[in-house]
Amino acid sequence: MCVVVAATFGLWQSQRRSSYAGYQNSLINLALEAAATVDPQLHSRIRRPEQLNDPDYVRAVEPLRRIRRAVPDIHYIYTLVRAGSEVHFVLDASDPNTRAPNGQLDQSGVWEIYHHLSPTLDAALGDGTDPGTPTASTEPFVDEWGTFMTGFAPLLDAAGRQIGVLGVDVDASRFVARQAASRQRAVLGLAPAGILVAIFGIIFYRVRRRGLADAHAAFERAAEARRTAEDLAEERRRLSAVIEGTNVGTWEWHATTRWISINDRVASLLGYQRSQLEPLTFARWRSLVHRDDYGDLKRAIGECLSNFDAVFVHEFRVRRADGEWLWILARGKVMQADARGKPALIAGIVMDVSARKALENALIKSAQLDRLTGLPNRTVFMDHLELTLRRVRERQQSGCAVLFFDFDRFKMVNDTLGHEAGDELLRQIGRRLQTALRLGDFCATDVESDLLSRFGGDEFLVLVNRLNGPEEAVRVAERLLNALAPSYNVLGHEIHSMASVGIVTSGQCDGGAEEFVRNADVAMYEAKRAGRGCSVVFSEAMHARLTRHLAIETSLRRAIGTSELYLEYQPVVDLETGQTRSMEVSLRWNHPTLGLIAPKEFIPIAEESGLLLAIGQWTLEEAIGNMVKWRNSRVSRAPDTISLNISRSGISLGDRLVEYVRSTLQSHGLPPSSLQFEVSEHEVARNPEAAGKLFRALHGLGVKLTMDEFGAGHCSLSVLRSHPFDTIKLDRSFLLDLHGSHSSLAVLGATLSLIRNLGLQSVAEGVEDSTQLAILQSLGCSCAQGPLFGTPLLASELCESRAPGPELV
Length: 809
Hints:
The protein is α+β, with helices and mostly antiparallel strands. Helices cover 47% and strands 22% of the residues. It folds into 4 domains: 26-171, Beta-Lactamase; 247-359, PAS domain (Beta-Lactamase, 2-Layer Sandwich), CATH 3.30.450; 370-538, Reverse transcriptase/Diguanylate cyclase domain (Alpha-Beta Plaits), CATH 3.30.70; 551-799, Alpha-Beta Barrel (TIM Barrel).
């Protein structure tokens, strides 16, 4: 395209130059003809403007005027005459439009000195030594008069010497117009060819560019292929080095020959020389794989072959040359396919994972077995029980039973001999139970055998399978209790420890494993209440009692501080004066749905659940507050003291109880002598040291103390001397059969005499009739309380007028 454009431009320039050359020749010829008609001698004499009017000059330029009239395109003709170093410019004076080059009209037609010579004029004028040559202007000149071109011819004198130059200015507008029209026609003529050339050029450019792009892409692909091949070779080299360095085995399975190629590491893992296994056929490889693993291995290979993108990963056992089984992990992938698209080569690696498998088995065993005894743990037991119950429901086996063992007084072993001794005792208990049940090592897959589990702490559970009835479960429990009866030698100490056993059978429970174990636990607590060291079979009545127990505990938490709990006051009457000496405070609970609940039922529950302390604090605050109200209101029947019971939990508080009593009395402004605490003989005997310390602190505070239920337990009489009691309250059993038993009267009299001799006050409980009252008075009893003196009163009832009690004799 560039060549075509250059050629076209060259032709146009050549045609233009030839056209201008022809026009210039015509101008030169016109100038030469005009110069031939001029008289050089006459023109050479013209030096001043007034000479232009000389008749000789007019006659001399007449030919030039005729030429100008003959050629209309001539605007004017002028001469340039050199005079020494000056050039005189002489115009045609007959032309009124003639102007000097500076634009000023010169009527004389002479421009005396011409200072501006163009290169064309200079060539025609010469340098004064060598004559000039005819020339013409190369380009049109445009001014306010139009477009002109000039031809120049030298003026020669008679001797042939140049004296000047004649110039002819010709109107070149038509020539320029013809040139412009010629160019337009040339452009119009060349336009189709140019367009066609451009189209072909573009097409050629695109084809060539596409060819170059394809060639470049092919080159890049070839280069990429070379790089890929080099990278693959390098990767293979590195992979081989890594495999050799990490000592990993490799294998290849060839589909056509069904041979398996292995490296030295695989042969070493199996305990062979590589030459002993090659060629390793598929049939021989199958003989090395564990029969339990071959089916899964075959399925894994089939999945890999059905999906070329899948990765083969499988763990299985292979027999070594020495007969041991080796766990290996094989990984592989289809690497090549044949012409039919079927796998031709599978390659991968082999790793020895026996150590990891052993660790996994150890972790699984650790997760299933109790670390202390080596018996199955709670999780395993619950899973097996759930499976057994499902088998029983589906009639795949006969009934089953769960025996819940809890060892009595095990905490005492830990507290006295230490936890190491307790752990050893638990291990020995587990071995005895395991031996008695004739159980071997635990097997997770054996779902039909009996199962012994340590459930936690000192609790052991036994799952008895293939049970025909509850009586059979009882016989198993008795056999196990007999096995546990002999003493244990623990760290040099002889220990006796029996267990309470709860039994539940599949015929007694339709629920799941959790409910089954819960019912066995309920039966175990019934065995503890029945005297320990025995077995009890679960019944629905036990569940009902447990449900009521839970309901009472839940409701009791909510009832503290509400009107459901209230206090009753039973008067303690002086048998000499008949006046109320004290009021024994009793806690009562009116449940909104269960009605009145006896203290003997909810107090033990409160003590077990840790609520007794909060209840005791509320009772103390309420009783002291009522005592202050009675005294401030001057109630006539207000007692001198109020008496509250101290439980086992209260005794365990020790100094904290003393501080609480002190702060409560101070906050209400009640003297300590107005408060009296009662503690049963049984609680004193349980922990005499703690009780004695507490009683001395309370007595030092000024609070009075009473031993309650005296004679009902096995308390030593020395307790009366070693503890600061103010009053001894006789158990109601002293009043039984007083009418017809001389011995009962003797015991009661001796007891009252002992109390008087110790300087203590005596109170008889449970007085029901006047005969008992008369006997107590005759024997010198200080005070009494019971139904004979009226029913217990509410705090508000003490302010009301009531009939007096029984008349004292």
